[in-house]
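Feature request, filed as a ticket because there's no other form

It would be nice if the structure record came with a short human-readable summary line next to the tokens. Right now we just get the raw output. Example of a typical job, pasted below so the devs can see what we mean:
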Amino acid sequence: MIDIVSGLLKLDASPFLKSGYLFKRLSMQEELGNSIASGTISFTTPGLEGSMDIITTTQTVTIKLEQTDGIQYEILGFIVDRRVVENEVEFEFLSTTKNFIVENRWLTYNSLFDALDTAYPNKKIFEVDSDINSDIPVKQLGETDFSLCKRLAQCYRYDAVYAFGLEGLLIKDTRTTKEELVEVPERLIYQNSKAVMTQDLDMSYRKFMDFEPEESTHSDSYFQAYQYNDLYNIVHSDSSMLLRNYYHNSKYRTSMYGTAKFRYLRELPQYKLGDVVLYYDHRKFPFSRFIARKMVTEIEYQKVTVDVELSGLDNYE
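Raw output as currently delivered:
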């Protein structure tokens, strides 16, 4: 591994660094919901005999980041484009395979977890158990694995968020309380901390922000009817929790009760995408819960910038 910020952050990029390539720049972006994490990484070529072969034959890049405070990333990037200009090469990568996005399949899975575990080709990071009946089979009828996983991840559990992140498919719980977060210093953001606020805090009180579908009285032991906005759905009773979770969790793809944007300089945040954090500003609010909705990272020698967008979880009068 090589030192990026002396004494703070190290980086490895296999197979390029061990082949004599010199690291130049890394850019990455990930966010909650249906966007697939992506990035670019560039090197200076060593000019050795045979060193250009690796550019055309390599299909993946494995990026490791290690910070002295314990934060680590292991990112498997599937190379989708490569550009060479003089002695510099740049690779564009996604956190999943091309087939995951474009290939249609017709399959039946034993359960929601079985479908996600089989259809998603990269690492799975499920930090919370599903509340869906494990005996419900899932059918994939002429759709891509990406399309299937988008729907199932949003149904996985009530009050959970998901992302096709840099490290893989992640699903995390949002129900961490303020009292629990106060005991975790790395989840606390406050004025004069390592985070610099890049725009004024935008907090909104929303009297009506109801993402719960209305359960109709037209139900029996076999079927359940739900109305959500202008949509009216009739589903088998065994699948009713899937629909309820899907509609409820859609709110986590919005700014919810406000937005906060922060920038970290010289090092990575001590939390990751989808984590619940606590913001404290004694001039405006007491402790306020936010969720890390989007992260954009730029890394060069002696330079690290991470822009984080947070969405508010708490309502205000």
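Something like this underneath would help us a lot:
The first helix runs from residue 53 to 57.
The two ends are 50 Å apart (CA to CA).
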